[in-house]
TrEMBL record:
One of its GO terms (cellular component) is cytoplasm. GO terms for molecular function: acid-amino acid ligase activity. Residues 298-361 form the GH3 middle domain. It comes from the Bacteria. The lineage of its organism: Bacteria, Pseudomonadati, Bacteroidota, Chitinophagia, Chitinophagales. Residues 388-492 form the GH3 C-terminal domain. InterPro entries: GH3 (IPR004993), GH3_C (IPR055378), GH3_M (IPR055377). Transmembrane segments: none annotated. Signal peptide: none annotated. PANTHER family: GH3 DOMAIN-CONTAINING PROTEIN (PTHR31901). This is GH3 auxin-responsive promoter. It holds the Pfam family GH3.
Length: 512
């Protein structure tokens, strides 16, 4: 056991002035730090941060004084004025950077404030994650000192009136410390490229000149890039070019649907490390081998609250109620789904990030992401989560020995009742009806509510088998190529209409 992992008594920790292993204390300390920094802002004055700081129970007082905000509410009420250059709104000073994020369901881009304080906190967490690699038995030290291929957004940011906007990965790379540059691939010039296809082509061209130790990025785009390198240089696997490739740091979506296809590209096993780095901040990362979850960052730059994801706190469309029950980290329970509220060093306050998480180890503050507040299907009470869908796809892929890198699901009317329509990317030969029966079978096993409703109002499960290219082409036509963009697992409303229209136009083109 590593010395740093030994849990000393709090009395000894205090005497040695070492941090105590107490997430509640860490979180209160973070909250106070955020409140002190922002107490003279317009937001801090309106919601009386000074009064919260003087309270004996600042966490509870903070919840009493400050309402819960969705993006639309905090942007309309506060953030829009920062785009006009107004300083000291929700965080001290002017906002110089905005992360453009549309999540996976919204049509219009969101402008998420990014401050130097947030970037500094993110960098500290990144360094801690690098240090945690000593907990992984299968990662040789030599691989860490090789090149790091990060497939992110362009560092050539959009220039606004007094600010820059772009993908968080692009903002982070642009502000990377000097010691990071020798290891960072694809390097400044290629990272600046805005045309995603051109960027990938340049990476493929340079690939033989690099010695890559690990990959960082969204699974779909990393897989596509590695496939192109293998095809271009007639390789059997990527390890023929990069023998020191030892691990893949991924995030944004569950890796399970991609794992089978990705491993076909390797010459030897590598280690997969999950991260939870959102546009709003670095929230969690996997810090030890074989852990089932990611460890929340409790002591840096984000204060977290947890809203039970149930009908008491959310309506049927996944919209949060006006005064939800919000728990602090010491009040949560393992095995329950919570929607995450965050307050950050960039002026997000009690902000509903839109993800749902579940604690798998409360003592270690380890969580898994189970889905999105609006990315679930419950037409008739089946309560089908993205986690259920990912697991079903993984089980079916293994059983049928096929690769399903992308999928999405929609709820549709079916006579007087309802059905689920699956759209599945699979380049292997597969019968859609057989695939539908297998997915249905696994979901019944995974979700009791689903099993009950399949005998009632949820009458059918349909599967349309498409190519992976069709999913990619739709993302391109929506302007969501590369970087942090990923295909939504559940389609509703306008996005579903756009998808159906896209597929119909493709069918018309084929038959024309």
């Amino acid at each position: 056991m590593a010395i740093l992992d030994i849990k000393l008594p709090n009395s000894i920790l205090k005497a040695l002035r070492l941090p105590q292993n107490n997430p509640r204390r860490q979180q209160i300390k973070v909250l106070k730090k955020l409140l002190r920094k922002a107490r003279f802002t317009s937001f801090g004055q309106q919601y009386r941060f000074d009064e919260v700081l003087l309270s004996k129970h600042p966490g509870k007082k903070f919840q009493e004084m400050v309402p819960v905000f969705t993006y639309n509410k905090i942007y309309t009420d506060w953030w829009h004025t920062t785009l006009e250059g107004t300083p000291d709104i929700c965080w001290p000073g002017k906002i110089r950077y905005y992360a453009l994020s549309s999540g996976t369901s919204e049509a219009a881009s969101k402008y998420i404030p990014v401050t130097n304080d947030l970037l500094r906190g993110n960098k500290i967490v990144m360094i801690k994650q690098l240090l945690s690699l000593r907990n992984y038995e299968d990662i040789p030290y030599s691989s860490v000192s090789k090149g790091w291929l990060t497939l992110g957004g362009s560092t050539d940011l959009q220039k606004g009136s007094g600010y820059y906007a772009g993908d968080l990965s692009g903002i982070t790379a642009k502000n990377a410390p000097f010691w990071f540059q020798p290891f960072y691939k694809p390097g400044k010039k290629i990272a600046k490229e805005k045309d995603w296809n051109k960027k990938i082509e340049e990476i493929v061209e340079k690939a033989p000149h690099w010695d890559i130790g690990f990959l960082v990025g969204v699974p779909a785009w990393i897989q596509m890039c590695v496939e192109m390198i293998i095809e271009r240089y007639k390789l059997n696997n990527i390890h023929e070019m990069w023998p020191n490739l030892a691990f893949f740091v991924h995030g944004g979506v569950s890796f399970e649907p991609y794992k089978k296809g990705f491993e076909k590209l390797l010459g030897k096993p590598i280690t997969y490390i999950e991260t939870y780095l959102a546009s709003e901040g670095f929230i969690a990362y996997q810090d030890r081998q074989y852990s089932t979850g990611m460890r929340l960052v409790t002591g840096e730059h984000i204060f977290m609250e947890f809203v039970p994801f149930d009908s008491k706190n959310f309506n049927a469309d996944g919209e949060i109620v006006s005064n939800p029950e919000a728990l602090m980290i010491h009040e949560v329970e393992e095995g329950k789904d919570y929607a995450l509220l965050i307050s950050t060093a960039a002026g997000a306050w009690r902000y509903l990030i839109g993800d749902t998480i579940r604690f798998v180890d409360k003592e270690r503050c380890e969580i898994v992401i189970t889905g999105r507040t609006k990315h679930f299907l419950s037409l008739v009470g089946e309560h089908l989560s993205v986690e259920n869908m990912n697991k079903a796809i993984q089980l079916v892929s293994d059983e049928m020995n096929i690769c399903i890198p992308e999928f999405t699901v929609a709820g549709i009317p079916h006579g007087n009742f309802f059905a689920h329509q699956w759209y599945v990317a699979c380049n292997d030969h597969v019968d859609g009806k057989k695939l539908a029966a297998k997915i249905d079978e696994k979901l019944k096993m995974l979700n009791d509510d689903y099993a009950v409703e399949r005998n009632s109002a949820l009458k059918e499960v349909f599967v349309e088998v498409l190519s992976e290219q069709q999913f990619m082409d739709f993302m391109r036509c929506k302007g969501k190529v590369g970087g942090q963009h990923k295909f939504p697992r559940v389609l509703k409303g306008r996005m579903l209409e756009d998808w159906q229209r896209f597929l119909k136009s493709e069918l018309t083109t084929v038959h024309a």
